[in-house]
Specification:
- The complex is a heterodimer of chains A (about 150) and B (about 350).
- Chain A has about 150 residues and is an alpha+beta fold.
- Chain A contains six helices and five strands.
- In chain A, the strands form two sheets. Chain A has a three-stranded antiparallel beta sheet. A two-stranded parallel ribbon of chain A has the order 2-3.
- The longest helix of chain A is centred in the N-terminal third of the chain and has 32 residues, at about 5-35.
- Chain A is globular.
- Chain B is mostly beta strands.
- Chain B has one domain (about 1-355): Porin (Beta Barrel).
- Chain B contains two helices and 18 strands.
- Chain B has a 16-stranded antiparallel beta barrel with strand order 1-4-5-6-7-8-9-10-11-12-13-14-15-16-17-18.
- In chain B, a hairpin with a 2-residue loop joins β16 and β17 (about 320-335).
- Chain B is globular, with a radius of gyration of 20 Å.
- Classes of the chains: A alpha+beta (about 150), B mainly beta (about 350).
- At the A-B interface, α2 and α4 of A face β1, β4, β5, β6 and β8 of B.
């Protein structure tokens, strides 16, 4: 085997390893930055809750007595985050969620889930409503001192 | 029993009035919906668009038959007790205000609740929100499939609602009765004053609902009293209603279906109704086609009511709370001894919104 060929193989292996490592790193970075979390005020008494409970409250049903949650807030500050939440937690499309909530209100009585479109307004709201919860991406949540991450949602 | 439920309704109304004056003690939420629909019949003298409300179009453009507005007030009396009232005004009823709902609901635990008062009679898939046009893609739900003369009941129900993995489960056991004086539909069809009572009703609805499929089954049995121009023609006659509905949401397609049977053995009456509809989500537009039918089995009295409707239409979701619609319907009335209003075609345009 020619020495040059061996060197080429070694070099190509190293390149592949670098690329794979970079790929893994970027996947890890992406997965962290793409994670969605349930959040509440820093001094909120709300603890980790079952994912089914989260689906219940976001469809507009009353929260279970033991959850400590007063009401959920739909975070509309980022359309992509909103759609990802519906897909990963509610298992619904945007239109499917809309139809379902309208049906529920006019079948069983009830109210629409509170919606907030501004990120700053959401933080302020959670600070003042310690038993309410919302969702945001993990990276953003980690940078805000006034709120705490209750659990990873996706 | 009737008196009891009237008292419940009266108490509920009084409660509502009290709440209006003592807002600090209760948390109230107001929701509502409205539909403004214009339409006209062609190739036929009249078009029966809505059986329960006896809403009829003729050859002149009209807004009345399908236009409606409803307002719902939900009040939390405490953490577990709430009161819901829903008032509706329909053009078909000369915009008289009627109470669709007026009930108290007590949450027994996270899954079970018990309700008492006046509610919609949940026979069909769309019965509960029949007037909420925003919740479906048609201008109106397919008329042949929704031909019942009683829309509400006064009574009690026990409801179970929970999740099983990705499935939303709803079980509703109900009992009650309804007295309808000068019933809209029966009085229109028989050209006489018809009083109808559905009593001793006991029913069960079981529904599984997921993102891609809904399955619902329904059963109700009870008794009928009926009088025509003051003459009693039926008393304590047993009736049974059963049905199944399956809906699919697959990618951009939506497929809706419903199959029901109504039986009254003593009168040898068996009526099958059904509906299938296919829609396609194309951005904010949902074009759709539908077919519905009502077919009565021939009996000794010659009863042979039989009509079908084919529909095509488009829904445009203008925003998150408003939808514009246009729809064309063609009805064939094939009954010989029991024709309804004859063959007809219908063009409708409307806007539905929720608030």
């Amino acid at each position: 085997m020619a020495p040059g060929f061996s060197k080429k193989i070694c070099l190509s292996n190293v390149l592949i390893l670098i690329l794979l490592s970079a790929g893994c790193f970027s996947v890890a970075m992406a997965s962290e930055s793409d994670s969605g979390v349930l959040v509440a005020a820093q001094d909120s008494p709300v603890q980790k809750v079952d994912i089914l409970e989260i689906r219940r409250i976001y469809i507009g049903l009353e929260s279970s007595a033991g959850s400590g949650i007063n009401q959920p807030v739909m975070n509309l500050s980022d359309p992509f985050l909103y759609k990802t939440f519906l897909k990963n937690v509610m298992h619904m499309t945007e239109s499917g969620y809309r139809r379902k909530t309208v049906k529920r209100i006019f079948r069983q009585g009830g109210e629409r889930v509170k919606q907030i479109e501004s990120h700053a307004e959401l933080i302020e709201y959670l600070k003042n409503n310690k038993n309410d919860v919302s969702f945001m991406d993990l990276k953003t949540a980690q940078q805000i001192r006034e709120i705490k991450v209750i659990q990873i949602l996706w | 029993m009737v008196l009891l439920f009237r008292r419940v309704n009266l108490a509920a109304l009084c409660g509502l009035l009290l709440l209006q004056t003592t807002p600090l003690y209760a948390d109230s939420v107001l929701s509502g919906y409205a539909s403004v629909v214009a339409g006209r019949a062609s190739n036929g003298d009249e078009y029966l668009a809505d059986y329960p409300k006896a809403a009829v179009y003729d050859e002149d453009w009209s807004f009345s038959p399908d236009s409606s507005v409803g307002v719902q007030l939900k009040t939390d009396l405490d953490n577990d007790l709430m009161f819901v009232i829903q008032a509706v005004s329909n053009g078909a009823s000369d915009y008289d205000v009627e109470l669709d709902w007026a009930y108290l609901s007590y949450q027994l635990n996270a899954e079970f609740s018990i309700q008492a008062g006046r509610k919609r009679l949940p026979l069909y898939y769309y019965s509960d929100f029949f007037d909420v046009g925003y919740a479906y893609h048609w201008i109106r739900v397919p008329a042949d499939n929704y031909t019942w003369q009683i829309s509400n009941y006064n009574g009690v129900n026990l409801q179970y609602q929970s999740y099983l993995n990705e499935w939303d489960i709803l079980v509703n056991l109900y009992a009650g009765r309804e007295d309808s004086r000068n019933n809209d539909l029966l009085s229109l069809l028989s050209d006489a004053t018809v009083d109808e009572t559905w009593k001793n009703m006991v029913g069960l609805v079981v529904e599984f609902s997921g993102n891609w499929m809904d399955f619902r089954t329904t059963y109700m049995q009870g008794q009928i009293d009926r009088s025509v121009d003051g003459v009693v023609i039926a008393e304590d006659v047993k009736q049974v209603f059963s049905g199944v509905s399956i809906n699919f949401n697959l990618n951009r397609f939506v497929f809706l279906s419903e199959f029901n049977r109504y039986e009254r053995d003593a009168s040898d009456i068996v009526i099958d109704t059904s509906m299938v509809s296919l829609g396609y989500y194309w951005g904010r537009f949902t074009p759709h086609i539908s077919h519905s039918l009502l077919k009565q089995k021939h009996n000794a009295a010659g009863g042979d009511e039989y009509h079908t409707t084919d529909s095509v239409g488009v829904r445009w979701d203008y925003n998150d709370s408003t939808a514009f619609k246009i729809q064309y319907d063609r009805t064939e009335d094939r009954g010989i001894t029991v024709p309804v209003l004859g063959d007809a075609e219908m063009l409708s345009l409307g806007v539905d919104f929720v608030f």
